[in-house]
Each structure stands twice: as structure tokens, then as C-alpha cells.
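Work Package 3 (structural annotation) set out to generate three-dimensional models for the target panel prioritized at the project kickoff. During this period the team completed the workflow that converts sequence records into C-alpha cells, so that structures can be stored uniformly alongside our sequence database. As a representative example, we reproduce one entry of 113 residues exactly as it appears in the project archive.
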Amino acid sequence: MRYEDAREGDGARWLGADGIGAELGRRATLVQFSSAFCRPCAATRRVLADVAAMVEGVTHVEVDAEAHLELVRALDIGATPTTLVLDAAGREVRRAVGQPRKADVIAALGAAV
């Protein structure tokens, strides 16, 4: 698992509440793409929910990748779990593939808040 900087300028990816099906967090949003039979997805869900509960203004949103294939393709999601860290405006600032560690998620939030 590795966080990468999102592309800046014209290549930056932006998501709003309509795109993810939930309101964005006041400070940041952790968007998790999951699939039904993905065991690491359940562990990722717990980690991201814990971090969102710990950090004021951060929201965790889980998106069923299989039910939202158009969004998955548009965002180049190639595997589950994939986590996007969005800033308050909905700009993707970090991305991770695989099961993250809590410390890595907290560190990645530093780019968003």
C-alpha cells in the first residue's frame, strides 16, 4: 500500500457529494472503494471509520465498486480496497491501494487538512 499525490492542475480529480453519494467532510473525506467478497475491505472499513471518529471534520464514505463501475472507471480504480483522501473541496490529494495502517491514514490526512 502506498499513498500517491494526485495530479495537480488540469489533471486534478475532484469529487462532490453527488459523485460519492454522501456529503463531504468539513475538513476531509476518506472515500473507500470496496467489493462484496474482499476481506481486506472489511479491515480497511474499520481503520477508516476509526480515523474518521478520531479526527474532527473527517468523514468516511464507502462506495461499492461493483455497483458504481462508471465512477470506478472514471477514477482509474484498479483494485479493492482503494482509498482516496479528499480535501474539504473534494479534490483528491492522496490515494492508497490495499489495506492501510491507521498511522498512514492519519499522515495522509495531513495533505488534506
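The CA atoms of residues 46 and 102 lie 10 Å apart.
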